Amino acid sequence: MTATTFGPKTTGAEAAEDLREEIAGKNLIITGTSLGGLGAEVAHVLAKYASLVIVAGPSKERQQLTIDSIKIALPSANVRKLILDLSSFDAIRVAAAEVNAYSEPIHVLINNAAATMGPYKETKDGHENHFGVDHLGHFLFTMSILPRIRAARSPSYSPRIVNLSSSAHRRGGVRFDDVSFDRGKAFKTMLAYAQAKTANILFTKQLAKRLKGEGILTYAVHPGFILTNLARTIPKEHMLAIGAMNEEGEILLDKIAWKTPQEGVSTHIVAAFDLSIKDHSGSYLADCQLQNDSVAPHASDPVLAEKLWTLSEELLGESFPISP
């Protein structure tokens, strides 16, 4: 299989086998790696070829379960846990300090974690949970570990940052004047999720612009519709709207192009390693292909991308002075 034949039914194992020479020798961090989710799935696939896979999440026990499951299948895999609570700025800074103390450079960061859908909830720093975890948490973690990502650069290699987004970004943009939905009074789960997924794309685009001169590449990915642990928390009204569920709450497996977890993580792997997209930093991928034309205007506007960067720094209380 060649890169040009990757598509919606390509599995992560197939993509990784084809890109194994690019994966070999690389050190990776993947956030959101509890068993049953896409992060654990992509960690399993990449551990076969990578030099080091770092699984990051808030629970030491869950990360160890993921490591144990990888080691059962691949006893020689080099896997390390990182305790990373994306709902706490203080915890993120502690985790970033640990990463920055590594002797190894970080070739690829896959920001895969996402907050569980549900009623209004705030992070430890008082931000709406989806925006706080999916965007602000990853923004702070990414910017804080840039020294180790920069350390992976060479004349022949450009490190990559991959941000998990979703086609659901089309349902709503960033509410710049009220990202926390009036502290829950105006909260709607799918609008909060859409805002966060839009933010992931805008962050990707602005990061690509600011890091262009440094040889670091960024991509946003939509993995497809997959019945992961997170997907099972999608509100019924949204599942009804997209034809994925009937009124009785039964999942309609024949009405949507559902993917297996293996088919979902293939786009992560293409974004992280495929050389054919190296000249398209800042792009959005779905079904293992560049799909920038499918991005909503509110997620592709460079002015909004710059505005989000400024807002993020204000909410974090920290400035990250890298410029285009």
From TrEMBL:
Alphabetical UniProt keywords: Oxidoreductase
Pfam hit, one: adh_short
Entry superkingdom: Eukaryota
Segments crossing the lipid bilayer: none
GO molecular function, one term: oxidoreductase activity
Keyword Oxidoreductase assigned: yes
PANTHER family associated with the record: RETINOL DEHYDROGENASE (PTHR24320), RETINOL DEHYDROGENASE 11 (PTHR24320:SF283)
Family membership: Belongs to the short-chain dehydrogenases/reductases (SDR) family.
This protein's name: Retinol dehydrogenase 13
Gene source species: Hydnum rufescens UP504
